[in-house]
Tumor necrosis factor receptor superfamily member 5 (Oryctolagus cuniculus), 261 residues
Amino acid sequence: PRARRRRPLPALLALCALLAPLQVSLQVAPPCASDRHYEHAGRCCRKCEPGKYLSSKCTTTTDSVCLSCGPDEYLDTWNEEDKCLLHKVCDTGKALVAVDPGNSTAPRRCACTAGYHWSQDCECCRRNAECAPGFGAQHPLQLNKDTVCKPCQAGYFSDTFSAMDRCKPWTNCTILGKIEERHGTEKSDVVCSSSLPSRKPPNEPEVYLPSLIILLLFISVAIVAAVIFVVYYRKQGKALTANLWHWVNEACGRLSGNKEM
């Protein structure tokens, strides 16, 4: 007769006996239900709050040991990290400026300084585009975004390249008391002439007082000079005539004396 094969029942029972304690232990340690806890050493342990890091994990008899972040460090979530994170450095040499200094529970936020915007291509700040003459920058300027240029409307102009200036209004010549000599364009301002010409009342003679005074002075000087000349001439003329007659009489007397001899 053939021998019967033994069934592996005893071996199976032995394996079950070995796995039974492990199954019990897995059922005793349920998964942690809160995101503020972590599982360790068969128990749910409390994570560290924002601003602190996990210095020592919990044990079967002790809780987690958390320590505060140091200067210029932070952690912004409940965590089981073994160290804090360092704040970003807003490097002014790379056109970065801190818009939020941050603290132990929040990171520092950097942004590009005015006139620059963040570019994903280079992960850096790039200088904003400049608007050409005839175009102005759209305001308000947006931080970390490139300049948006718009054409100058009628009555406004831009004559320079600028990444920040908006279009400027034309000059009002009338308010300045002047007249418009050349019309403005989107690239140039209005050109004003000199002051408006003064309007004179009709039939009003022009009077030039300084010239009249000079003319009167000249006439007065001329009259005085003429009077002096006439008086002087008369005095000198009489003396000259008397001397001439005396000389003639003397000459005639000498001629008569010579004849008698």
